[in-house]
Specification:
Pfam families: ILV_EDD_C, ILVD_EDD_N. Catalyzes the dehydration of 6-phospho-D-gluconate to 2-dehydro-3-deoxy-6-phospho-D-gluconate. It catalyses: 6-phospho-D-gluconate = 2-dehydro-3-deoxy-6-phospho-D-gluconate + H2O. The protein has 22 helices and 16 strands. The protein is an alpha/beta fold and 610 residues long.
Length: 610
């Protein structure tokens, strides 16, 4: 018997459906106009066009493609061999082409997308391109599929901006069915506690760069996704909650028989669905309830704050309007079921080993906190996603998730959560609206009233820390870091010094219109402040010395300044000339000039995207 859906969840979802109705209907009409029922996609092309599309293929493949009943799969890949998470994709096209042929289909690499690594660019100029790389990836995906040669698509991506970009691009061609194909995490390295300890010792000047580099290389040490639960692994979770992965496909290591088997199965499954007419167009398959399920997963697992932008942007690409109020209200009813670094000491491999996502999905589904009336690449409903795959005599078989968690310090049942809510809060007041992830913040650190110290760049914060000027209770305000100002870089380098000050007994918090990271942790941080300072947001009115009330329990974020004085304040002119050129930043001036707010997804596609 199906558990009735939680009444609050039902009400929020219905509100989203009603709010989204006009844009969703417009989107569906657009993609339905592109569908070619009963014909392969390339049948609409002229002979010269087709000849160009066939030219590079081997003769045997050309013969198959000339048949009007042969499906052709497009592959969009984020492969490069610098980013550890994407290096394993090198082998995937050959596996997929081979598997497609075995099932009466063909496959072509339709295009590639960039895949930059925030871990490499963190704190440097390249990070100012990071957020907008998502939109470049979306456009690259659409360009690859624009040849109209394909009856379905497979999308290879893992990390921070790559998966959201692939999804936005895929939904722009949402008349095609598709499956997202992950590469898996690297094996576990040194423990997270040891890694964090070395970082802090380095920040305090107690160990040198050689010791820090040795520690980091023992943590990030092989092909695969970084093993902490940041934006990349939150991506993988959301793709399963959306039902566009094979069940439990996310967290098997690269270069293993299981990874190859799952990749081949994805190709075969898509081909068979196209051939028998069961493969749903991606844009129709993913509806309002699908995106609410992804949001639920984000809360139940304590996922990355970056997805308060990316999930909004992905949904808008399908004509669905999510708001931060939805995030806040859903968070209040979803229990936190996992603790993985930075919310705990375990990594993603430990999480998968003790029960993983199939356990989480079953617990939510059985307690009325997950929409089961959704379409997925496996068919109707989320039951398939409560199972995990095994290789039995070389063949994939899915079995039910474990009945009990193998370690309740990492994964807990619905009846015994780590906290009764998802740990994401909407922060609001005269400073603006922002979000905070409190799942890793200790309870006694969640409410702070202290004077502000205002900075215009994270380097200014680091320099003040080095000079010993921050040995006090204070609210660290870093402004002019929004999408319009400088591309909204992550400010993750602030975590170690602010954490040190917190450990020394000072009450500290961060307020910024920039981003932190999927790895944001114990320091309370109200981020993504909207409107940003450059667009007149209240964060730009704060002056050093203003008392700030920072209450992440109630969600209040207020500058305790006389209202008349506050309203009369001007926002100072930003010094952004140093952010406009170098490392390609000049090429993104157009993106900075038109991007929407963080709350509406920080999208550069304009208001009529849906």
């Amino acid at each position: 018997m199906t558990t009735p859906i939680h009444p609050t969840l039902a009400a929020i979802t219905q509100r989203i459906i009603e709010r989204s109705h006009p844009s969703r209907e417009t989107y569906l009409a657009r993609i339905r106009a592109l569908q070619h029922k009963g014909r392969v996609e390339r049948d609409q092309l002229g002979c010269s066009n087709l000849a160009h599309g066939y030219a590079a293929m081997p003769q045997t493949i050309k013969i198959e493609m000339l048949k009007h009943s042969t499906p052709n799969l497009g592959i969009i890949t984020a492969y490069n061999d610098m980013v550890s998470a994407h290096q394993p994709f090198l082998q995937f096209p050959d596996w997929i082409k081979d598997e497609a042929q075995q099932h009466g289909a063909t496959a072509q690499v339709a295009g590639g997308t960039p895949a930059m690594c925030d871990g490499i660019t963190q704190g440097y100029e390249g990070m100012e391109l990071s957020l907008f790389s998502r939109d470049v990836i979306a456009m690259s995906t659409a360009i690859g599929l624009s040849h109209q040669m394909f009856d379905g698509a497979l999308y290879f991506g893992v990390c921070d901006k790559i998966v959201p970009g692939l999804m936005i691009g895929a939904l722009s061609c949402g008349h095609l069915p598709g499956i997202f194909v992950p590469a898996g995490p690297m094996q576990s390295g040194i423990g997270n506690k040891e890694k964090a300890r070395t970082r802090q010792l380095f920040a305090e000047g107690k160990v040198g760069r050689d010791a820090l580099l040795e520690s980091e290389m023992k943590s990030y040490h092989s092909p695969g996704t970084c093993t902490f639960y940041g934006t990349a692994n939150s991506n993988q979770m959301m793709m399963e909650m959306l039902g566009v992965h094979l069940p439990a496909a996310a967290f098997f290591h690269p270069y293993t028989p299981m990874r190859e088997a799952l990749t081949r199965y994805a190709a075969a499954h898509l081909v068979q669905g196209i051939q028998n007419g069961t493969a749903k167009p991606l844009g129709e398959m993913l509806d309002e309830k699908s995106f609410v399920n992804a949001l639920i997963g984000l809360m139940a697992t304590g996922g990355s704050t970056n997805h308060t932008m990316h999930l909004v942007a992905m949904a808008r690409a399908a004509g669905i309007v999510l708001t931060w109020d939805d995030f806040d209200e859903i968070s209040s009813i979803i229990p936190l079921l996992i603790r993985v670094y930075p919310n705990g000491q375990a990594d993603i491999n430990h999480f998968a080993a003790v029960g993983g996502l199939p356990f989480v999905i079953r617990e939510l589904r059985n307690n009325g906190l997950l929409h089961d009336d959704v379409e997925t690449v496996m068919g109707y409903g989320m039951a398939a996603y409560t199972q995990e795959p095994f290789l039995v005599d070389g063949k994939l078989q899915w079995q039910d998730a474990v009945e009990t968690s193998r370690d309740e310090e990492i994964l807990r049942p619905f009846s015994k959560p780590f906290s009764p809510d998802g740990g994401l809060r909407l922060m609001k007041g005269n400073i603006g609206r922002g979000v905070i992830k409190v799942s890793a913040v200790r309870e006694h650190c969640r409410i702070i009233e202290a004077p502000a110290i205002v900075f215009n760049d994270q380097r200014e914060v680091l320099a003040a820390f080095e000079r010993g000027e921050l040995e006090r209770d204070f609210i660290c305000v870093v402004r002019f870091q929004g999408p319009r100002a400088n591309g909204m870089p992550e400010l993750h380098k602030l975590t170690p010094p602010l954490g040190i000050l917190q450990d020394r007994g000072f009450k500290v918090a961060l307020v910024t219109d920039g981003r932190m990271s999927g790895a944001s942790g114990k320091v309370p941080a109200s981020i993504h402040m909207s409107p940003e300072a450059l667009l007149g947001g209240g964060i730009g009115k704060i002056r050093t010395g203003d008392m700030i009330r920072f209450d992440s329990v109630s969600g209040e974020l207020t500058a305790l300044v006389d209202e008349a004085e506050w309203n009369a304040r001007d926002i100072p002119e930003p010094y952004l000339s140093k952010n406009t050129h170098g490392i390609g930043r000049e090429l993104f001036a157009g993106f900075r000039g038109i991007t929407s707010s963080a709350e509406t997804g920080a999208m550069s596609f304009g208001g009529d995207f849906a």
